[in-house]
């Protein structure tokens, strides 16, 4: 199990360190684990000017799986686009062909009070947001900035999807739904955008191959509303790159905090990059305040998707549940008046819970 660890910027290294401890703990006694650390993001820029050095990309290519922290810090906007630490993640996703981004939003029962939604609305939340990760307005050409005849500047991007790109993510959605509650909601903006009209057509066509899965469609604005109103109605949500980015942060808050949301990004060969959905959180970086659970749960996804180790994945998830039941909280998931612990203490408690489990 050769794992590239790209911890990156801000709280990336803080949460990744705890995820690595969880991984080492659950695999204790195995000599299979090999961790290869490589710089990415701002850390890599300060070393050699490139946020995604070729050597890092090669390390990622050669690894069986990648554990990513976060990239991007304030001030990045002053750099040319390709040199921005945040862009390194996009380049990495593109280079590895990572097109299927699984973002499960699950409410741990102990955190019902931490959610911004009422317990009766949120109890039992278990949705899977499947975000297409390789196309859309994120990568569409043409893109850029130009000067209009009037002398005014104009920035522009292109929203685009090809049939094959939609088809492959749609298949992922229906196959995922088959392992779950057999419902797919496809989210688009087919009432306004041609690329999304094609999205709806293709998802509908692929859906005919999965008669056992119920398919519904929502426009993204209505989907945002419906998710807040009755989140339990959702099983698998499949959507494009941009809408998936936005809706997954929305879903994160339902679980209590963005610090709770893990993700897996897979390519066609099944290779995976695993990362928390949150960013580098410059406002709390360096203060041992970040919640490491999203990163720790990302390791559980890695064990399940990349190494077929469902039992070990469940042990990590159970350990997270155990410490939350015991009342342990980082500041982001503490309710008013509840005391909280730091990143390291939370990580240590989870590792201890893993180690003391009866197997
Ligand atoms: P962010 O996710 O970094 O932070 C948003 C808010 O959530 C902040 O208040 C932060 O303190 C809080 N937060 C995030 N993770 C947390 C955790 N684990 N525990 C507790 N609180 C947490 O998003 P942002 O502020 O919009 O972006 C900051 C930088 O990160 C930007 O440069 C952005 O481009 C980058 N970013 C990177 C990724 C990534 O690497 N995957 C994702 C999103 C944003
Ligand atoms: C995410 C992030 C990234 C995205 C940024 C940092 C490029 O917000 O992974 O959700 O927009 O995909
Ligand atoms: Mn995002």
TrEMBL record:
Domain Isopropylmalate dehydrogenase-like: 2-350
UniProt record, GO biological process: L-leucine biosynthetic process
Annotated positions binding Mg(2+): 221, 245, 249
EC number(s) reported in the record: 1.1.1.85
Domain of life, per lineage: Bacteria
Details of cofactor binding: Binds 1 Mg(2+) or Mn(2+) ion per subunit.
Single annotated GO MF: magnesium ion binding
Subcellular location as annotated: Cytoplasm
Catalytic activity annotation: (2R,3S)-3-isopropylmalate + NAD(+) = 4-methyl-2-oxopentanoate + CO2 + NADH
Pfam families: Iso_dh (PF00180)
Assembly with partners or alone: Homodimer.
UniProt-recorded name of the protein: 3-isopropylmalate dehydrogenase
Organism listed in the record: Advenella kashmirensis W13003
Species lineage: Bacteria, Pseudomonadati, Pseudomonadota, Betaproteobacteria, Burkholderiales
């Amino acid at each position: 199990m050769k794992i590239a660890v790209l911890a990156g910027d801000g709280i990336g290294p803080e949460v990744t360190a705890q995820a690595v401890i969880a991984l080492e703990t659950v695999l204790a006694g195995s000599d299979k684990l090999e961790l290869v650390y490589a710089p990415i993001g701002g850390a890599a820029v300060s070393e050699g000017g490139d946020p995604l050095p070729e050597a890092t990309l090669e390390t990622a290519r050669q690894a069986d799986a990648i554990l990513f922290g976060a990239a991007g810090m304030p001030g990045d906007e002053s750099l040319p686009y390709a040199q921005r630490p945040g862009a390194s993640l996009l380049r990495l996703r593109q280079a590895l062909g990572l097109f299927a981004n699984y973002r499960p939003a699950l409410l741990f029962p102990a955190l019902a009070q931490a959610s911004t939604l009422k317990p009766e609305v949120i109890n039992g939340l278990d949705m899977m947001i499947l975000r297409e990760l390789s196309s859309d307005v994120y990568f569409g050409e043409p893109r850029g900035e130009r000067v209009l005849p009037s002398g005014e500047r104009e920035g522009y991007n292109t929203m685009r999807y090809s049939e094959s790109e939609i088809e492959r993510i749609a298949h992922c959605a229906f196959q995922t739904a088959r392992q779950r509650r057999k419902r797919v909601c496809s989210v688009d903006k087919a009432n306004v955008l041609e690329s999304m009209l094609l999205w709806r057509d293709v998802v509908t066509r692929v859906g005919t191959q999965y008669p056992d899965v119920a398919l519904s469609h929502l426009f993204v604005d209505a989907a945002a509303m419906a998710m807040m109103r009755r989140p339990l109605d959702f099983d698998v949500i499949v959507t494009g790159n941009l809408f998936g980015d936005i809706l997954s942060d929305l879903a994160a808050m339902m679980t209590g905090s963005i610090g709770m949301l893990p993700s897996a990004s897979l390519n066609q060969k099944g290779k995976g990059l695993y990362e928390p959905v949150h960013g580098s959180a410059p406002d709390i970086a360096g203060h041992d305040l970040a919640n490491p659970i999203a990163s720790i749960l990302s390791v559980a996804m890695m064990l399940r998707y990349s190494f077929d180790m469902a039992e070990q994945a469940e042990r990590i998830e159970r350990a997270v549940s155990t410490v939350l039941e015991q009342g342990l909280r980082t500041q982001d998931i503490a309710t008013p008046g509840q005391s909280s612990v730091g990143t390291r203490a939370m990580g240590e408690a989870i590792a201890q819970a893993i180690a003391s489990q009866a197997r």
